[in-house]
Amino acid sequence: MTEDEVKMGTTVYVPHSSCRDFRWMGDYEAVYRESVKDPEKFWENIASELEWDKKWDKVLEWDYPDSRWFSGAKLNITKNCLDRHVNSSKKNKVALIWKGDDGCERLYTYRQLHREVMRFANGLKNLGVRKGDRVCFYMPFVPEHIVAILACARIGAVHTIVYAGFGSESLHQRILDSQAKIVITADVSIRRGKRIDLKSLVDDAIVNAPSVERVVVFRRTQPEIELYAEMEIDYYDLIKDESNICEPEEMDAEDPLFILYTSGTTGKPKGILHTCGGYMVGTYYTCRYIFDIKDSDVYWCTADPGWITGHSYVVYGPLAAGATVMFSETTPDYPDLGVWWEIVEDFGVTIMYTAPTAIRMFMKYGEEWPNRYNLESLRILGSVGEPLNPEAFEWFYRVIGKGKLPIVDTWWQTETGMHMITTIPGDPMKPGFAGRPVPGIIADVVDKDGKSLEPGISGKLVIRSPWPSMMRGVWNDRSRYEKYWNDVPGCYTTGDMAVKDKDGYIMITGRSDDIIIMSGHNIGSAEVESALVENEAVAEAAVIGVPDSLKGNVIKAYVILKEGFEASEKLENELKYHVRMTLGPISMPSEIKFVQSLPKTRSGKIMRRVLRAVETGADPGDLSTIED
Questions:
Q1: How far is CA 493 from CA 68, 308, 464, 499, in A?
Q2: C-alpha 165: how far from its chain's center?
Q3: Residues 372-385: b if buried by 16+ CB within 10 A, e if exposed
Q4: CA gap 248, 467 in Å, rounded
Q5: Of 111, 80, 83, 39, the residue nearest 470 (C-alpha)
Q6: What is the pTM of this model?
Q7: What value does the mean pLDDT take over residues 531-550?
Q8: 149 vs 13, which has greater pLDDT?
Q9: In angstroms, rounded to a whole number, what is the distance separating the alpha carbons of residues 15 and 292?
Q10: How crowded is residue 626: how many other Cβ atoms within 10 Å of its Cβ?
Q11: Confidence label for 18 from pLDDT (cuts 50, 70 and 90)
């Protein structure tokens, strides 16, 4: 940690006095002290704001590193996302507002959304889907996607959503690991006015995937593509004769809700498992209190459901809180750089939650575009996916927030399920620092032995106690789950490095493992390396993230060729194309450098931190184990 980095938070921003009408629980320090003094009481109070078929016998059973939250409780998360509102004055409140890439708009009230979810749930049941079966999604960002997600939860099926930017091999791996029974997809996704074929990628992905029994296809284009009747069925044909009444499956609080795959430090992705009760409580709590969602709000999270942010803060959390949820297929720069700000103005968006990559892109093009639109409806801004650098914070605050709005810069992970560190709306904000631990969460910066470090000293970011929405395991891989708990004694180790200041604010400074965070996406170095070495010319490869002013990081690959092969621009393009087609465009290296050797330990492990140090000019650290 450099002296300049520690000083980043010395500039403090306080939201304008007109923006302090927030639904918080009181003074942060007092609430936080109470939450860690008696965490079970704290979480029980939050859980009591929701509806349960049967209340819990015990709030927490903790057998390190395994937890059970709300033991004995029975629920169905869709009853809190839908039925609870349909049976109240919110029945005809708008639940979803969608804007397509072509500008078309669709709205669903809670009543209408409830009916559509019931119909699709019945359609899934008629395909033989039962409680515990896995259903894999490979869908564009359309309302049918959200309907189908909730339908799975309604009948107790475990969904696993694969971001539609991944390639067929990545999809295949996830189908195999989860043993998915049904795949739900579309003929195309639409991005920047162009159709991107999804169906053919699914066709490739289900070859040699014997668990898949049927494929449901949402057909968007005319003329409609032909379906293979024995295996495939149209989305709307599936539900056209179905009843809009489907009683919810009674779920135990610890029953699986979904598996979401994230990159690991080995080539195989990790299936992070979340369960029904604790995840519901955590996402509801953070939406209601961190985002301060009120009945009058129009809440817009720009994330795709293929990521945990889409699960927690597009679907489950805001719907459990009874929000009006805006979502859009549009990209921030098509058809022009005003499309997002036009959405804010047209729909009166009050809470906007987006990624630093998008903010930095807007910074690049200046203030002209956002200044063309009336953004006065906004009252809270949020950031997610990677650290919000001070320059982007200040631009977001000044240009979009007009120098008065709070910025909720959230730190959390797929594994945590909910916000863990942030700045509570209305509290002082420090550019470069995400904020303080959310009440109920004990986060710390420690050395390798778990000892708390003094302010200004960089160390490992850990969580010292269990929380309701924590992952319950890695699907089919107990040892990978235990690794999260074995690195630092008695703690969940996040894999992030951090530093705290004298006020307890925490700055995330980077990763301690081989995960590359690019545009908010977690990409495993090993997964990209494995794709590269599939080429007959490649003997060995190492992949690192290189700092980038727009994307946070870009991928750079170092490649050693086999004898008889020569480096060339043609080969470089061929390798990039292979990664793109295998893993998807988000994993494609921006640069490939052909080298004669790679820095390794004496045991043969590639020392990627040495490559990162060479790229950035940083101190490579201890080199005592390096072979050469």
A1: 19, 19, 9, 15
A2: 14
A3: eeebebbbbbbbbb
A4: 26
A5: 39
A6: 0.85
A7: 85
A8: 149
A9: 15
A10: 13
A11: low
Average pLDDT, the chain: 91
Sign of the dihedral defined by the CA atoms of residues 162, 164, 167, 172, in that order: positive
Specify whether the CB–CB gap between 464 and 442 falls below 8 A: yes
Token pair for 590: 């921006």
Mean pLDDT of the 229-238 span: 96
User: Is 545:553 a contact under the CB 8 Å cutoff?
Assistant: yes
- The structure tokens listed for 76 are 């169905």
Q: Residue 244 pairs with which residues in a beta bridge?
A: none
Q: Is 183 within 8 Å of 216 (Cβ atoms)?
A: yes
Q: Quick one: DSSP state of residue 88? A: S
Among 222-236, 465-479, 481-495, 558-572, the minimum mean pLDDT is found in 558-572
- Count of beta carbons in the 10 Å neighbourhood of residue 398: 13
* pLDDT tens for each residue of 267-276: 678 999 999 9
pLDDT given for residue 357 in this prediction: 81
- Whole-angstrom distance, CA of residue 55 vs CA of residue 336: 51
Kindly tell me if the per-residue pLDDT of 36 is higher than 70: yes
Closest-CA residue to 408 (of 390, 395, 393): 393
Confidence label for 520 from pLDDT (cuts 50, 70 and 90): low
In this structure, what token pair is assigned to residue 168?
A: 């067929």
Query: What digits encode the pLDDT tens for the residues 55-113?
Result: 999 999 999 999 999 999 999 999 999 999 999 999 999 999 999 999 999 999 999 99
Return the HEC string of 217-258.
EECCCCCCCCCCCCCEEEHHHHHCCCCCCCCCCCEECCCEEE
- Residue 93 tokens read as 């409140």
CA 138, 140, 144, 149 dihedral sign is positive
- Domains (range + CATH), the chain: 3-76+260-269+277-440+458-496 (3.40.50.12780), 77-249 (3.40.50.980), 514-616 (3.30.300.30)
CA distances to 357, 544, 569 from 554, in Å? 12, 8, 19
pLDDT, mean of residues 564-568: 90
The pLDDT value given to residue 125: 98
DSSP state of 282: H
Strands 74-75 and 251-252: antiparallel
- What secondary structure, in 3-state letters, does 119-155 show? HHHHHHHHCCCCCCCEEEEECCCCHHHHHHHHHHHHH
User: Are the C-beta atoms of residues 461 and 508 closer than 8 Å to each other?
Assistant: yes
Q: How many other CB atoms are there within 10 angstroms of residue 289's CB atom?
A: 21
**DSSP structure string for 372-410:** TS--TT--EEEE-SS---HHHHHHIIIIISTTT--EEE-
Q: Are 141 and 328 in contact (CB under 8 A)?
A: yes
Joined tokens for residue 407: 């910025």
For 404-443, what is each residue's pLDDT tens digit? 999 999 999 999 999 999 999 988 999 989 999 999 999 9
For 253-302, how does the pLDDT look when each residue is reduced to its tens digit (9 = 90+)? 999 999 999 876 556 789 999 999 999 999 999 999 999 999 999 999 99
Q: What is the DSSP string of 590-614?
A: SEEEE-S---BBTTS-B-HHHHHHH
What are the backbone dihedrals phi and psi of residue 583, each rounded to the nearest 5 degrees, phi first? -110, -15
Q: In one letter, which amino acid is 441?
A: I
